[in-house]
Amino acid sequence: MTIRKLTKQESIDLVIGAKILACGGGGSETNALANINRIYESGLNFTIADLDDFKQDEYVCIIGMVGGGITEEDKLLVKDREIVQKKPMITAIRELEKFLDIEFSAFVATELGPNNSVIPMMVAAEMGKVAINGDCCGRSKPKISISTTRVAGIPITPFTIVNQYGDVQIVKETIDDVRGELIARNASRLSGGSASVARCPMRIKEAQKAVIPKTNSLAIELGKNVREANERGYNPIESIKSTLPDAEHVFSGRVKLFSRVEEGGFTAGEIIVESSKNTGVNLRIWYQNEYLLSWINDKPYVTCPDGFYIVDTKTGLGLSPWEEDFKEGRKISVFVQDASEIWKSKIGLSIFGPKAFDENWQEYKESSSFS
């Protein structure tokens, strides 16, 4: 097996690149960097390997966090609870292994994003395993039911849910992935806004039908190029273009309006960007944890499942609606990129196409068709 051992700098570069490619979500950059520091200061390393490096009958599972915005009322539910579970993700994996009487050889990310790409590598380092160089979305998404494993027909169950307060749940069966998402989402809402979930136990031969490969190494390359552009005084926007030749730089402007509401386990709202090139032209983006739908002057534009990368024009660093990134007047640049082929299938679009979020939306159009 060819295993790539990442340096600490490569791990940080991965976070930089993943925040761009995540389309606004994918977990906290701050938490990701803290996890990196903790792992490397303990003498461990992140390691990744391609799917082809494993035996066909070895087992892997998805490990990640489920969560989002919650109400003040929800926060009160755990206000005085003691944190007793220090490593809920490892507990989630161990409980799933115990239930199935198997041992996982590796772990794969639920999505491409700052912390959710780090989590499988972190858990693998602590358990003496390896993480898959890839993920189950190719970007970030607002629900665990939005997964390439679902497109490939790989069941979400059995799965485990563990929070830091000591609750451990094993979900043996669900009606479907959507129901599984509701169960996990509500568990996270009752857990202070986040919970660890180990799901989709599968053999490598099944994972090869679902996992979008080599997204970790892509994020490392992108993050490295953007970081070095800033260090050397180069234009980071050009670095993004050269690293992502299939992505198109479609919009530049200033933030005109940003709104955010946190409820139901999601963070949602709109971003309006005023063009710096064409007077009176506005880009409007609707997000639910991640950027999903957009309009140019109220005319439907790029949508999920395509990549929608919003970066600071000066630094090229990725921006997120979860943070205080969209201050009025901030100069931003927008790139779009066609989704992986698995999402363009009929079932893929039924799961992660625009109609999944707005039934009155026009049919999905590839982002490249707007150029």
Description of the structure:
- This protein is an alpha+beta fold and 371 residues long.
- The chain folds into two domains: 4-213, 3-Layer(aba) Sandwich (CV3147-like fold); 236-370, CV3147-like.
- The protein contains eleven helices and 17 strands.
- The strands form two sheets. Strands 1, 2, 3, 4, 5, 6, 7, 8 and 9 form a nine-stranded mixed beta sheet that branches. Strands 10, 11, 12, 13, 14, 15, 16 and 17 form an eight-stranded antiparallel beta sheet that branches.
- Helix 2 (29-41) packs parallel to helix 5 (118-127) and helix 9 packs antiparallel against helix 10.
- The termini are far apart.
- The relative contact order is 0.16.
- The mean pLDDT is 96.
Label this structure with key terms.
371 residues; 9-stranded mixed sheet; alpha+beta; 8-stranded antiparallel sheet; CV3147-like; CV3147-like fold; 2 domains; 17 strands; 11 helices
Give the secondary structure arrangement, pairings included:
Layout: E1 4-5, H1 8-21, H2 29-41, E2 47-49, E3 59-67, H3 72-76, H4 88-100, E4 104-109, H5 118-127, E5 130-135, H6 148-151, E6 159-162, E7 168-171, H7 177-189, E8 194-203, H8 204-207, E9 212-213, H9 215-232, H10 236-243, E10 248-258, E11 261-263, E12 266-275, E13 282-288, E14 290-296, E15 299-300, E16 307-312, E17 331-337, H11 346-352
Parallel strand pairs: 2-5, 3-4, 4-5
Antiparallel strand pairs: 1-2, 3-8, 5-9, 6-7, 6-8, 10-12, 10-17, 11-12, 12-13, 13-14, 14-15, 16-17
Helix pairs in contact: 1-2, 1-9, 2-5, 9-10
Quick structural summary:
The protein has helices spanning 8-21, 29-41, 72-76, 88-100, 118-127, 148-151, 177-189, 204-207, 215-232, 236-243, 346-352; strands spanning 4-5, 47-49, 59-67, 104-109, 130-135, 159-162, 168-171, 194-203, 212-213, 248-258, 261-263, 266-275, 282-288, 290-296, 299-300, 307-312, 331-337. By secondary structure, it is an alpha+beta fold.
